[in-house]
């Protein structure tokens, strides 16, 4: 809500009337301060969106005493199950209850064994949600029917990758002046080609010859 919300609804014949404009501005600021409280009061009329204060009112109406330390979501689900109108018990209805309770699971029924099987993934289920499932099944299922809750463990895939990379080579040369008139003397040019992986460090040292007499 805008701080000058009420000015939008001011009649045209009040345009330019200073007293009316200032009065609506003052009232808009007061209304803006209570806007959050008004919205919260509205949301507390609905079980799914009620906060702790709002859900406590529903619990008092339904005669529910919440467990110590129960989460807000669990308390909402308990009130919802207590106040929902009765419907024919079908597999579709059970899955619908799990959906509106935000319990990501699926129920299947073995009619021959009178067994309800609820399956869920471990990544989507917490111990608190398992308790909500049990509460829902205990209230909904008939006395001659049992249930089984299966939690599928999440599978993790580990992929190992090996990266190859060509790194730089470092060549170090130490050169001293040589007497080219000495015999025997050869001037060689070497070309090095490095192919592969890793580090290649090469050190070439060329030392100059002293003046000596060599026999042919």
UniProtKB/TrEMBL annotation:
**What InterPro entries does this protein map onto?**
Phage_Mu_Gp48
* Protein name stated in the entry: DUF2313 domain-containing protein
Q: Which domain of life is it from?
A: Bacteria
Name of a matching Pfam family: Phage_Mu_Gp48
């Amino acid at each position: 809500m805008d701080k000058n919300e009420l000015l939008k609804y001011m009649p045209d014949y009040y345009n330019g009337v200073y007293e009316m404009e200032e009065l609506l501005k003052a009232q808009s600021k007061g209304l803006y301060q209570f806007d959050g409280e008004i919205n919260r009061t509205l949301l507390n009329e609905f079980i799914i969106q009620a906060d702790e204060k709002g859900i406590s009112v529903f619990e008092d109406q339904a005669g529910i005493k919440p467990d110590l330390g129960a989460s807000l979501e669990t308390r909402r689900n308990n009130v919802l199950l207590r106040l929902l109108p009765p419907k024919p018990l079908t597999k579709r209805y059970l899955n619908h209850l799990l959906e509106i309770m935000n319990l990501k699971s699926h129920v299947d029924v073995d009619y021959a064994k009178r067994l309800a099987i609820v399956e869920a993934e471990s990544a989507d289920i917490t111990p608190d949600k398992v308790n909500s499932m049990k509460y829902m099944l205990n209230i909904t299922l008939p006395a001659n029917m049992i249930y089984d809750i299966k939690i599928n463990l999440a599978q993790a895939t580990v992929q190992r990758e090996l990266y190859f990379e060509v790194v730089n080579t470092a060549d170090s040369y130490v050169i001293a002046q040589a007497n080219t008139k000495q015999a025997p003397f050869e001037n060689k040019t070497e070309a090095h080609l490095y192919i592969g992986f890793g580090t290649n460090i090469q050190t070439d040292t060329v030392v100059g010859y002293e003046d000596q007499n060599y026999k042919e």
